[in-house]
Specification:
Layout lengths: L3 E7 L2 E7 L5 H8 L18 E4 L2 E4 L12 E3 L12 H8 L9 H14 L5 H7 L11 H16 L1
Parallel strand pairs: 1-5
Antiparallel strand pairs: 1-2, 3-4, 3-5
Length: 158
């Protein structure tokens, strides 16, 4: 099969790559570009571990073809921090011990970032609904919800 040439923006940087027509965006990010933050948990879009933001929309990168990123803006977990400065969500996940094994954490952080971009003052119910596409088998969800609530408060004050 011939490769597909793709020009896109990932975490604010112009990126070009070749991929196979049937290669997922998750495979491109991890295997071709070395951006291994997004994880493959299920490969069917059910767990949210591979969540990224494409053109301002939260998507499971295992369900998007790498070729579909042509001309789009992609945000991954690697783009959340600024150098050594963690994003408030990342800092609050640490402070609230809202992570254990780490497989789901990047997806939760991206989903929470997307949620807070659209709703800077979510209720607990709105947070739980906004993160419902992400599954965690280790921590439960209370610490994650508290971390998002705390980060929302910090981000409103910044």
């Amino acid at each position: 099969m011939a490769g597909v040439a793709v020009s896109t923006t990932i975490n604010g940087d112009a990126v070009e790559y070749l991929c196979q027509p049937d290669e997922t965006l998750l495979e491109v990010l991890r295997d071709r570009l070395g951006l291994t933050g997004a994880k493959e948990g299920c490969g069917t879009g059910d767990c949210g571990a591979c969540s990224v933001i494409v053109d301002g929309r939260l998507v499971c990168s295992c369900l998007v073809l790498g070729a579909e990123a042509e001309g789009r803006e992609v945000e991954t977990i690697e783009g959340m921090a600024h150098g050594d400065q963690l994003h408030p969500l990342q800092q609050k996940f640490l402070e609230h011990a809202a992570l254990q094994c780490g497989i789901c954490t990047p997806g939760f952080l991206i989903a929470a970032k997307d949620l807070l971009a659209k709703n800077p003052s979510p209720t607990e119910e709105e947070i739980r609904f906004g993160l419902a596409g992400n599954l965690c088998r280790c921590t439960g969800y209370d610490k994650i919800v508290r971390a998002v609530q705390d980060a929302a408060n910090v981000m409103k004050g910044a």
